[in-house]
Amino acid sequence: MTPANHPGRRLARLAGGLAAAVVLAGVAACGAGPGPAPPSPPPAPAPAPTAGSACTQKPTTEVRTSDELVEALAGAHPGSVIAMAPGTYPGTFVASAQGTPDKPIALCGSREAILDGGAIDGDYTFHLDGAAYWQLSGFTVRGGQKGVMADRAQGNLIEGLLVEGIGDEAIHLRQNSTDNVVRDNTVRRTGLRNGKYGEGIYIGSAESNWCDQTNCEPDRSDRNMIEGNTISETTAESVDIKEGTTGGTLRGNTFSGIGMTDADSWVDVKGNGWQITGNVGTDSPEDGFQVHEILDGWGLDNTFENNSATVNAGGYAINVTKNKERNRVGCDNRSVDAGQGLSPEDCG
């Protein structure tokens, strides 16, 4: 799924001192690799970035055109605050600088500041490429094959964006991207190029792509928090959590399955040790949430609590397809109009 290089791609390589790495996984098939050993329990999550704090500060740079934005991204350093004026910014953009926990780099704008990636078979509209401690806040990301891609990225905050009209997935964390927060975004109308790849939010990489993305090792995009997002009109899952990922949180999100043509659940969990709590979904094609074992040692130790699933279809609210004894479905989950009921396992 990695797009071909686009001749009009705007690259802004950001040099700085970020304290982590975001990793975005492409979807090119690789040869069958060895199954990973079950991972050890994850360390405690890193502190979440402070929501929106940098964008409340006085900008260090104000931009009004795509060229000015490219220049600002290239020159960013810890503590930079880049403010985008309302308007359309055509092109594709890259951030590679590294901030620090106490001096993040911020890219801020209103909904009327629109990054327009153009053709849905083109490139990534915004790419966090090895970036750390960035805050992306408030603006619109539209068009392009992928909306916001994060590769080898750490400690970043993607907050309050509108991501819409995307060729494949809207927001993707891959290539060992860790400790990132994806919060309070609105995601809609994905999969316009290929419905199979139209996820709203995608964490990690499929095992078939590990040789292309992470040197044939698991894509350990761990300890990421996906919180408070509103996701609709996706052709594939609202959230797809891949094998290889561990210790993440999926909390307080809202999903709609209307228009979902290439998936059968809002959320597909194949990783380990995820906390899936307080989410609300309506109108799924089959099940609300699913857990799968793609490889031995994965699809384990996930916990579902206080989710509300108005499925309006014939499946389960929460379908743990394997390793039922290693995944917990709490009795406080709510199932409405799911033909098979809450779950194939007893709640507890």
UniProtKB/TrEMBL annotation:
<protein>
    <submittedName>
        <fullName>Right-handed parallel beta-helix repeat-containing protein</fullName>
    </submittedName>
</protein>
<dbReference type="InterPro" id="IPR011050">
    <property type="entry name" value="Pectin_lyase_fold/virulence"/>
</dbReference>
<dbReference type="InterPro" id="IPR006626">
    <property type="entry name" value="PbH1"/>
</dbReference>
<keyword id="KW-0732">Signal</keyword>
<feature type="region of interest" description="Disordered">
    <location>
        <begin position="33"/>
        <end position="58"/>
    </location>
</feature>
<dbReference type="InterPro" id="IPR012334">
    <property type="entry name" value="Pectin_lyas_fold"/>
</dbReference>
<feature type="compositionally biased region" description="Pro residues">
    <location>
        <begin position="35"/>
        <end position="48"/>
    </location>
</feature>
<feature type="signal peptide">
    <location>
        <begin position="1"/>
        <end position="25"/>
    </location>
</feature>
